[in-house]
Amino acid sequence: MKTIFYAATALIVSLATASAHDIAKAGPAYDTKDAKVTLVYEHPLPDVPGKSVKGVIVEYGPGGYSSAHTHAKSALIYATVLEGAIESAVNGDETRTFKAGENFTELPGDRHDVSANASKTEPAKLLAVFVVDTDDAVLTTPRKP
C-alpha cells in the first residue's frame, strides 16, 4: 500500500499543472475568503478495491482562507505547498506555517482548524493528495462553531 501511495503521489504531482476537469466537491457551504479548490486528478487504486486517489489544488489569494472543516472520514491526505506559504492547524495543535516545497499529512478523522494563506500580499497554492474510499464524493465538510 505504501508503494502505491508514493507512486500515486508522484503521478499527481506531475499532473498538478494539467487543466482542471472538475471542481472538488464540498459539503454544505462554509466560510472562505479568496479560496479556489479544484479536483485535478481522480483514479481508483489498482489492487486496492474500494479505494481511490484524488488530487486537489487549493489556491488562496492574499489573506485567503477556509474555515474550520473535516474531510471524508476515510481520507488520508498528503499536502504539499506548491507556491507561497500556508498556515495549518489540525486537532487543536498550534498553527504551523509551511513554505513552498514543504508538506504535511492529515489522518482519517482529523479536524482541520486552520487552513489559510500566510501572506496578506502574495498568493499561495497547495496540492492535497487524498486516498479515500471510492464512494466518498464529498471531500470537505464545514465544522460547526
The CATH superfamily turns out to be Jelly Rolls
Question: What percentage of amino acids are in beta strands?
Answer: over 45%
CATH class term: Mainly Beta
Would you report the number of β strands?
A: 11
Instruction: Please indicate the count of domains.
Output: 1
Low-confidence stretches: 3-30
Q: What is the CA-CA span between the terminal residues?
A: 36 Å
Spell out the helices and strands N to C: HEEEEEEEEEEE
The CATH topology is given as Jelly Rolls
The CATH architecture category equals: Sandwich
Instruction: State the share of residues found in helices, binned by percent.
Output: under 10%
Question: Mind explaining what this structure looks like?
Answer:
With 145 residues, this protein is mainly beta. The chain has one domain (2-142): Sandwich (Jelly Rolls), CATH 2.60.120.10. Helix content is 10%, strand content 52%. It has one helix and eleven strands; from the N terminus they run αβββββββββββ. The chain has one helix at 2-15; strands at 22-23, 32-44, 51-66, 69-71, 76-83, 85-90, 96-99, 103-106, 111-117, 124-133, 140-142. A hairpin with an 8-residue loop joins strand 1 and strand 2. The longest helix has 14 residues, at 2-15. The N and C termini lie far apart (36 Å).
